[in-house]
Amino acid sequence: MSRRVAIALGLAACAVLHAAEPAPRWFKGNLHTHSLWSDGDDYPEMIADRYKQAGYHFLAISDHNVLAEGTRWLELKAPAVVAGTVVQPGGGAVLEDYLARFGPDWVEQRETAGQWEVRLKPLAEYRTLLEEPGRFLLIPSAELTSKWSRPATATEPARGGPVHLNHTNPAALIAPVVAGSALEIMQRSVDAVLEQRARTGQPMMIHLNHPNYVWGVTAEELMHVHGEKFFEIYNGHPGVHNGGDHAHLDTDEMWDAILTRRLAELQLGVMFGIGSDDSHHYHRMLLGQSNPFRGWIMVRATHLTPESIIRAMEAGDFYASSGVTLAEVTRTGRTLALEIQAEPGATYTTQFIGTRRGYDPASQLIESGPGSKALPHRRYSKDVGAVLAETKGPRASYTLKGDEIYVRAKITSSKAKPNASVAGEVECAWTQPLVNEAK
Ligand SMILES: [Zn+2]
Ligand SMILES: [Zn+2]
User: Ligand 2 centroid vs 32 CA: distance in angstroms?
Assistant: First the structure.
């Protein structure tokens, strides 16, 4: 073969390879889900099947301090009545539905010394039932579930609270950290994940879950974590206080405090917002239950693989939703633009939220009252997370004027959220922030 022909063939091969690279597309997913491997109330393949049928492209079942690996038998306990409802985790109608869906050859049961047991299938086994290339992906995960506490001192009462972090696509389970502060738990957990990632070469990520669950994590602690890129702006569990209260910031306010201080003062980089379900209850869809399909992320990636999803998320190429779908989002150069996939009868308001240079950095501690074991929150000045512009309708865009540190968009629909996690919720979406790189 002549050199010229070889070069021509080489060029042709490049062209073919290039043409085969798919264009990025939107994949819908949920990174926070529970099953009978911990405190969820259904079998993991039943849960994954529900998400797949609901049109999701990827799901991470993230049970508390456990990976779905190895052999585990679930003991079926006698039915008990809890709050007026008969409860038997994994038994009764739940087991009947599992048998009906996947058949008696798949469902493994046994009786040992009078105790009835059902085998919880590991991910490596059940993923073969449901995964399809380009259509549905299951990603390993675990919710690193920790608590911090410290005793009373002469000047401070006893303090404590939960810290939960999701480790997505781990190579091995990381032990929960026991420490005297949320910050120490977060930092040591993030460090352990970064170390595992560097050692194994496997793409993986860690995100802080529901910061306002039992008010376990303050914005000031989260903003100080080195290497953390993600937290939950929206979590569909009914007990996690996305909306804050009289003494605590909501998660939008926390995000603005975190972005402002990380970017302008701490030089610790941007933090992105995730929407998730944190679903535990799959059998009664109603207010007060921890149900699926309330919060999710839409990731624009080239391939439906953990690697491609994580790479896109680390580039901020995704948005969080509790009901609003965006046809397009672009964060290019100095402009953040979006187009809403409008639903009939709904109207949409897009707020562009950001902080300008020269903001008033003052903040005040908010008194949370006696008896609270949580650390008090801080209220920042109106400059932090100000509404820089507001647009009605299906299209919105914002071009940096020059003095913004960042700008992000929150889209609020007039439509009440079906099966809301708290009463009165409307559907929203949150884009990732556009950071002003100009000095
Ligand atoms: Zn949690
Ligand atoms: Zn959870």
Answer: 6
Q: Is residue 211 part of a domain?
A: yes
CB-neighbour burial class of residue 350 (10 A; exposed 0-12, middle 13-18, buried 19+)? buried
pLDDT at 1 over 50: no
Residues 88 and 174 in one domain: no
Q: Quick one: 244 and 200 in the same domain? A: yes
Q: CATH number, domain at 279? A: 3.20.20.140
| pLDDT tens digits along 272-315 | 999 999 999 999 999 999 999 999 999 999 999 999 999 999 99
Q: Are residues 238 and 347 in the same domain?
A: yes
Determine phi and psi for 364, rounding to 5 degrees: -125, 145
CB atoms near residue 265 (< 10 Å): 10
What would the mean pLDDT of 343-353 be, rounded to a whole number? 98
Q: Is the pLDDT of residue 236 over 90?
A: yes
Looking at the structure, tell me whether residues 79 and 165 fall in a common domain. no
Q: Are residues 200 and 239 in the same domain?
A: yes
CA 164–ligand 1 middle distance (angstroms):
5
* 91: confidence class by pLDDT, cuts 50, 70, 90: very high
Q: Residue 379 to residues 161, 188, 225, 361, 365: CA-CA distances in angstroms? A: 20, 27, 20, 11, 6
**Rounded to the nearest whole angstrom, what is the distance from the C-alpha of residue 419 to the centroid of ligand 1?**
20
The domain in which residue 107 lies consists of 73-121
Same domain, 309 and 409: yes
**Residue 147 CA, ligand 2 centroid: distance in Å:** 14
pLDDT at 20 over 80: no
What ligand is nearest to the CA atom of residue 164? 1
Ligand 2 centroid, distance to 166 Cα (angstroms)? 8
- Residue 63: predicted pLDDT: 98
Return the percentage of the chain with pLDDT > 90, whole number.
Answer: 89
| Strand-pair category, 25-30 with 386-392 | unpaired
How many whole angstroms separate alpha carbon 95 and alpha carbon 117? Answer: 11
Q: What is the pLDDT averaged over residues 241-257?
A: 98
| Token pair for 238 | 């009914």
In a domain, 313, yes or no: yes
What's 179's DSSP letter?
A: B
Distance 432 CA to ligand 1 centre (A): 23
* 240 alpha carbon, closest ligand: 1
One domain for residues 354 and 399: yes
Q: Which tens digits make up the pLDDT trace of 149-187? A: 999 999 889 999 999 999 999 999 999 999 999 999 999
